[in-house]
Amino acid sequence: MRQQPDIIIPDSVDMPRAEHHTSSNGVSIYTLYSNDFEVVRFTFVFRAGSAMQRKPFTASTAVNMLSEGSTRMSAQQIADELDFYGSYFDVNIDRDYVYVSFVSLSKFFSQTLSVAREIILNPAFDSKELRTYCMKRQQGLAIERKKIDVQSREIFGKALFGEEHPYGITSPESLYDDVTREDIVALYRELYTADNCFVVCSGNISDEVMRGIADIAEALPEGKTHLPEFPATATTYKVHKEVEGALQSSIRIGRLLFTRTHPDFVGMQVVATILGGYFGSRLMQNLREEHGYTYGVMAAMVNFEREGYLAIATQVTRDHTDDALREIYFEIERLRTELVPEEELQMAKNMMIGEILRILDGPFGIADVTIENIMCGFDNSSTERNVEIINAITAEDIQRLAEQYLRREDLVEVVVG
After folding, report:
1. What is the pLDDT of residues 186-214, one digit of tens each?
2. Is the pLDDT confidence value at 293 over 70?
3. What pLDDT does 110 receive?
4. Which of 63, 105, 307, 325 is in the most buried spot, having the most CB atoms within 10 Å?
5. Are 280 and 344 in contact (CB under 8 A)?
6. How far apart are CA 365 and CA 382, in angstroms?
7. What domains lie within the chain, and their CATH numbers?
8. CA angle 107, 112, 114 (to 5 degrees)
9. For residue 319, what are the contacts with CB-CB under 8 A and spacing of at least 6?
10. Pairing state of beta strands 88-93 and 248-256?
């Protein structure tokens, strides 16, 4: 008879440290060396997310327009050049930051770097391309906002932070009509500067790679970026929106808590994992396996630069909306009043540490974690400390955290459908 091998979860994780370099104009460059593959990835990170914009949609438009032509290359030439050398380019934006990433085979690094230089330093922001982009995004957003899960996500943000808070603002898609080239150029000049940037490079990093990345960093203009003042949060605790003809309801429950720098953040990640962080979690077992109200439910801690929150999200059949809400609150209250069985707690720990190990299995995943650590003011030893905290947490700790932070009266409830 065959026997399944024991699952062995390590007590600790060895997280590679990034070497820190500083360009002549003050840009921090972090390097993670790995010679296992002949490939390099480098990411320029700018504090230029939507919370930094002065006009709706300008932050996302600016970063997505970077590759739509430079002063020397058309958008098609940029795409063809990257494709020819097997290079990869990607941009992402969140509330606080934008991420401009390139992946290149080592032997084609110089060619990829030439395109990267055009994208980062010389974007044209062509007026015709801008209008095409804004029109597509406006149409796409209008379609997306007809979905109840998108509506609940946006309403949940407003309920948590308030309609005037940069983390809670949602703007009508019609405002894409007001975005001008002058707006985009002004944002780019203000935020894509040396003082507002850091770089993380991973993979097979040669002297040529370091010189090339430093050359781009040193070409960034100097700036004096000022963080905007945020208004105080204004939380609304219950919002229900009827959508005629909806066959499902989208539910979001959660509350404002704290960022990753708070000593209880990792502990609340364990709480969220037990609630809805993996397929065998309590909410999945209850809502899906036992009652059949939903195909899936999740719970997670979310971290922004200045705020953090817990969120539970699911879509359930319309007729069982109230039943699902009752069961969600039942599982929350059970965490507050009963100790988690040791076997269940160990399973949640295994899932969390296993996911960390999965992410860290390769230089690019290590680079992603490094970026997140830098944004939180940590070095990579924080990842090792997080694993130690997860391993050390007890059932009594879980109950204490749930009792302290998951009181029913503190939870925001949004239902759309």
Report:
1. 999 999 999 999 999 999 999 999 999 99
2. yes
3. 97
4. 63
5. no
6. 15
7. 19-219 (3.30.830.10), 238-416 (3.30.830.10)
8. 120
9. none
10. unpaired
